[in-house]
Amino acid sequence: MEAISRATLTDGAFLHLIDDGLSPPRAQMDPAEERRETKRQKECPCDERIIDEVRGKEDYDTLPVKRFFTCKNYQADGFHYRQPWVIGVQEDIECLTKRVEEAEQVIKGVPNLYKQIETLEAHVKILTGQVDNLTVEVADLEKLCFE
User: What is the pTM of this model?
Assistant: First the structure.
C-alpha cells in the first residue's frame, strides 16, 4: 500500500514502484547489465572477437556438424575462448526463463494493485468530502468571528 500511495507523481514513477514492490531484487531489467552478466563471451581474453564455428563431418567424425563459439585466433593452448554452442544457448535460455518467471510474478500482482488503487480512490473521495466539510465549517466560523 505504501508503494501505491507514493506513486502518484508520474506514470513512470508509478510503474517503477510497482516493479520494485513485486519483484525480487534484481537488475531492474537493464539490458546492458544483462548482457554483461551473460556467460557467452563477446571477446576472447586475447582481445579477438568470438565467431560461430561449425565443424564439418571431415573435421570430427563422431560428432558431425558440431557448433562452437570460438575465438577468431583459437589455439588449444588454454589462452583462447571456445565454448560449445549448446552451452551458450542453454545459458541464454536459462536467463530468458528467469525473466519470464519474474514477469509472471509482476502480472500476478496486478489484480491486487487494482484493488489497492480502488481502495485508495475510495479513501481519497472520503477525505475530499471531509476537507470540503471542514472548509465550509471554517468559513462559517470566520463569519461568526468577524461579524
Answer: 0.40
